[in-house]
Amino acid sequence: MPPQETEQQQQPLLTAESVEEPEETAYESDEKVLIIGIDGESEGSDSDSGRAPPFSWKKLWLFTGPGFLMSIAFLDPGNLEGDLQAGAIAGYSLLWLLLWATAMGLLVQLLAARLGVATGRHLAELCRDEYPSWARLLLWVMAEFALIGADIQEVIGSAIAIKILSNGVLPLWSGVIITALDCFIFLFLENYGVRKLEAVFAVLIGTMAVAFAWMFGETKPSGTELLLGILIPKLSSKTIRQAVGVVGCVIMPHNVFLHSALVQSREIDHRKKGRVQEALKYYSIECTIALVLSFIINLFVTTVFAKGFYGTEVANSIGLLNAGQYLQEKYGGGVFPILYIWGIGLLAAGQSSTITGTYAGQFIMGGFLNLRLKKWLRALITRSFAIIPTMIVALVFDSSEDMLDVLNEWLNVLQSVQIPFALIPLLCLVSKEQIMGTFRIGPVLKTTSWLVAALVISINGYLLLDFFSSEVNSALFGTVVCAFTAAYIAFIIYLVSRGVSFRSWCNLGQPKIVADTEIE
Asked: C-alpha distances in angstroms, 456 versus 103, 142, 374, 499?
């Protein structure tokens, strides 16, 4: 659709020619492209008249993939650490918040998918055209910092898992190297087609589900307390920090950019409104299923640590590095030592999330800067941003659990700082009729989305305030923090004011256009 050659156009595509259910559907496939549909549609078909074709399980399966890749960000090592700390310190009391945080994340990801499907372009590309050069570059820098912070957590998580599974023979720094190499091996699979790469991710998600379900079965958390924790909201001053962490680690800035790009792995005819509606329907179903599964996996982890360590002396000292050892001491070996079950689940989480992080980095760099680089070079550049600082961390903090926990807190803060710079552009763009045409969100959904964004930003603002109030202990550092805070708030106000007006809120104004094609 766009005049420039975009990042997603360089990826292998699945072409989904959506049609009214025919008597026979021809499938033509080779190693890289899967074509779905038939030629010679009648002029009066549903897709031509603006109506989506009837639901088809076969088509849902063919659209399945991008949502599960996106859901991996809800299951990365940073999320697992937030889960285990919430369980150990707050018990079952924050399960309701985990549920609603996942629901808020689902809303954000549905909007990201809507933007990508309706426009045929991803968020970073649209930001490049929407904002002036200085704002575009600043948004790119913010997105890169968010990605680097997430990547460090993910690579460290993989390295910790490798250390566990090797009985400590392989130190963290060697795990970092292995993770970096594995990432390129998995990206190599992309050359054999999108579906094969998606199958690899499906195996990794399945591995997480089996590993953490096994742990759930071994530890036998209370079903009654689990249900009460989901249904009855509870929050105390002692668990407020864990509550903030549960919400803060669910919505990750780079994942918003990623999902708007992943949905373009299926080619859609934007000239036909029904085709776009159909794609949105199937992506919404797939995304919902994927995040329900991610919620269940996070639930397993939280309840396992709630059952084992809530109210104990070690509750406040559990982190990714020592969690497996604590589990082993608490529950012993069994048929298969729980330490290794934890290590396998953590490794699957780390490996899958580092690959999706590389994908996100390529889309972010290519979209904001409009760079045309070879795939391996883009992967090398984006991986280096994370691997080099992670290697330094691994060498310095290999045996220091306390320092790794402090580092993780700083990385969580870094993620929290960046959230507005993905959410606000997304909400502004998906509300614009000039960009979205008839697929722009209406006043009710817009109000709900902005309330969710305001809540998430406020919660993360609390985390930042709490963190810096405990860390700022000098006048100089305090002055620097205040200056950055003022600039930070000013940029947020600029983004909001540029994208929001009463006229656009009521969806008044320009002709209804989807992509380059006018819709009657």
From this structure: 12, 17, 37, 19
Helix, coil or strand: residue 59? helix
Q: Is 6:366 a contact under the CB 8 Å cutoff?
A: yes
pLDDT digits (tens, 9 = 90+) for 7-21: 444 444 454 444 333
Q: Write down the mean pLDDT value for the chain.
A: 79
**Residue-level pLDDT at 501:** 55
SS (HEC) of 83-121: HHHHHHHHCCCCHHHHHHHHHHHHHHHHHHHHHHHHHCC
Q: Which residue has the tokens 């859609």?
A: 268
Give me the phi and psi of 249, to 5 degrees please.
-90, 0
Continuous H helices in 370-419: 375-397, 401-418
DSSP per residue, 244-304: HHHHHTTS-HHHHHHHHHHGGGEE--TT-HHHHHHHHHHHHHHHHHHHHHHHHHHHHHHHH
The CATH number covering residue 179 comes to 1.10.4160
**How far, in Å, CA of 35 to CA of 267, rounded?**
9
Give the tens place of pLDDT for each residue, 426-436. Answer: 999 999 888 88
Q: For residue 85, what are its two tokens?
A: 């700390």
Q: Is residue 241 part of a domain?
A: yes
Position 2 scores a pLDDT of 44
Residue 447 located in a structural domain: no
Asked if residues 255 and 30 have their Cβ atoms less than 8 Å apart, the reply is no
Segment 327-382, tens digit of pLDDT: 888 887 666 888 999 999 999 999 888 888 888 888 888 889 887 777 667 767 76
pLDDT for residue 214:
92
**pLDDT confidence tier of residue 225, bands split at 50, 70 and 90:** very high
**383 Cβ contact partners less than 8 Å away, ≥ 6 residues apart:** 180, 183, 184, 358, 361
**Is residue 36 one of the residues assigned to a domain?**
yes
Residue type, 119: T
- Residue 388 domain-assigned (yes or no): yes
- Domain enclosing residue 118, as ranges: 7-418
Read off the pTM. 0.83
Place of tokens 């002709």: 511
* Cβ–Cβ under 8 Å, residues 268 and 517: no
Assess whether pLDDT exceeds 80 at residue 53: no
How many separate domains does the chain show? Answer: 1
Select from 16, 14, 264, 267 the least CA-distant residue to 125.
264
Query: In whole angstroms, what is the distance from residue 360 CA to residue 376 CA?
Result: 14
Q: Which of 285, 237, 241 is nearest to 110 (CA)?
A: 285
Q: DSSP letters along 138-150, please? A: HHHHHHHHHHHHH
